[in-house]
Design brief:
about 375 residues, alpha/beta, TIM Barrel, eight-stranded parallel beta barrel, 12 strands, globular
Length: about 375
């Protein structure tokens, strides 16, 4: 591998035919430390691998001779129309891999009629990205130490036309990311969280020797259920919590009026040795009931993955790392190509399974022995 990354391609190579092909190509277009930061997981990466393994172990059981000529992947979710049930997950700092960053990603999302969740840690402003999006646009919020500044971010998202507020709750700490550490990753000086430029300085803390930099330091800035209840009073946007794994947490969110949850382990990037999101999805669906909005996030790379998630109770799925890999390889064209692959693979899977609409995808389509 050359030390100098190649420029993004102007067309898609003929042998790049699946979403899982993109990481192989992306290595040529992303500096090694940045690639390791994106691809890596927490600690020993047990959860990172489990996300993929859990999906691979699920098998489908097709039905034959059903008429699918009127088939469609269209769906409605929380009052919005989607061409297909695939969203771009919130991912920080797209300019790590391409100079047009989130602007190019948003252009691809609009071209493929794909909803996009814009990160608090985007490298273009949330307003600039919103201006590029004609598909559903949601804003992902990281709570800031200042609740006033947190509220200001929410008000900016409202003014820019975002329709949902996604609150990430499973990454108050970065986790132990040894792979990125070994590669020597540091955020380049040219990349910054532009949405946070006006953030007030963090107060200086002095810890006593018996105090912990984690518990009495970092975690003093982490939100609790109290802050979530506060946020509900600050906005009329529907709130969705991202990072739920325990069914009782999902039930608590529902009972306090949170409009939906995203079942996710943060792509295996935070706490290691926890289950795959797909493994907890059925229990969360059972606990919250048939109508509560659920989104599955974690290792979606195939149309069959999307089908499996829907069969186990998800309404939509999210795609994370593949958007950075495809952006690095071919800019907006790459992201659009990646999304088209997923959408078409889902259509093929549905047709071969004998299910012409998403509402017909149920657990009966899984082989469970």
């Amino acid at each position: 591998m050359s030390d100098i990354p190649q420029a993004p391609l102007s067309q898609i190579p003929s042998d790049l035919v699946s979403v899982s092909d993109y990481p192989r190509y992306a290595r040529q277009h992303i500096p090694h430390p940045i690639y390791e930061y994106i691809a890596g997981g927490g600690a020993d990466e047990l959860t990172l691998r489990r996300n993929r393994q859990a999906l691979d172990q699920i098998q489908l059981l097709p039905r034959m001779l059903n008429d699918c000529t009127q088939g469609t992947t269209a769906t409605e979710f929380m009052g919005e129309q989607f061409r297909h049930p695939i969203l771009l997950a919130p991912v920080a700092f797209h300019t790590l891999v391409h100079p047009q960053g989130e602007i190019a990603t948003a252009q691809a999302a609009s071209a493929l009629e794909t909803g996009m969740v814009v990160s608090t840690l985007s490298s273009f402003s949330l307003e600039e990205i919103a201006a590029q999006l004609t598909s559903p646009k949601w804003f992902q919020l990281y709570f800031q130490q200042s609740l006033t500044f947190t509220r200001d971010l929410v008000k900016r998202a409202e003014a820019a036309g975002y329709s949902k507020l996604i609150v990430t709750i499973d990454a108050s700490l970065h986790g132990i990311r040894n792979r990125a550490q070994r590669a020597g990753f540091t955020l380049p000086q040219t990349v910054e969280p532009v949405n946070l430029r006006a953030r007030p300085p963090l107060p200086r803390k002095t810890l006593t020797p018996e105090q912990s930099i984690v518990f009495q330091g970092m975690m003093t800035e982490a939100p609790t259920w109290k802050e979530i209840a506060w946020l509900q009073q600050q906005t009329d946007l529907p709130i969705i919590l991202k990072g739920i794994l325990h069914p009782e947490d999902a039930l608590k969110a529902k009972e306090m009026g949170i409009e939906g949850v995203i079942v996710s382990n943060h792509g295996g990037r935070t706490l290691d040795s926890i289950p795959a999101a797909i493994e907890l999805l059925p229990a969360i669906r059972k606990t919250t009931g048939p109508d509560y909005p659920l989104i599955l996030d974690g290792a979606i790379e195939r149309g069959t993955d999307v089908y499996k998630a829907l069969a186990l109770g998800a309404n939509l799925v999210m795609v994370g790392r593949p958007q950075l890999y495809s952006l690095a390889v071919a800019g907006a064209t790459g992201v659009a190509h990646m999304l088209r692959i997923l959408r078409e693979e889902l259509e093929v899977t549905m047709a071969m399974m004998g299910t012409d609409t998403l509402d017909k995808i149920t657990r009966e389509g899984l082989y469970e022995n």
